[in-house]
Design goal:
Blueprint (H helix, E strand, L loop, with lengths): L2 E5 L3 E2 L5 E8 L9 E8 L5 E8 L4 E3 L7 E6 L4 E6 L8 E9 L3 E5 L3 E5 L2
């Protein structure tokens, strides 16, 4: 059973970079061509917003609306993948989720989510 756990600061100041890490257990982020690893967020009063992901081979892909500020990377030794969102504003306040995507199916496994507030 795969498990995903988000970690990182809960409060970030405007203009700073938000950094979150997803630790995966029960599966390897490098071993299966059929899975990809994603970041999704939900801002207050809004729907889910896909931010980007990283494939088993390290290929990254991003939501075009966030691409200029988003970077996703991985640490294969720790079986983790990370999100960096730069130049944050209060509009980036959201619950951030990491999720495993089954290609052709969708997001099948989710972390519990972590609330990040952008405020001075």
């Amino acid at each position: 059973q795969v498990q995903l756990q988000e970690s990182g600061p809960n409060l970030v100041k405007p203009s700073q970079t938000l950094t979150l890490t997803c630790t995966v257990s029960g599966d390897s982020i490098t071993s299966n061509i059929n899975f990809a690893w994603n970041w999704i967020r939900q801002r207050p009063g809004k729907g889910l917003e896909w931010m980007g992901g990283i494939a088993y081979d390290g290929t990254t892909y991003y939501n075009p609306s966030l691409k200029s500020r988003t970077s996703i990377s991985r640490d294969t030794a720790k079986n983790q993948f990370s999100l960096k969102l730069s130049s944050v504003t209060p509009e980036d306040t959201a619950v951030y989720y990491c999720a495993r995507e089954s290609l052709g199916v969708g997001m099948t496994d989710w972390g519990k989510g972590t609330l990040v507030t952008v405020s001075s």
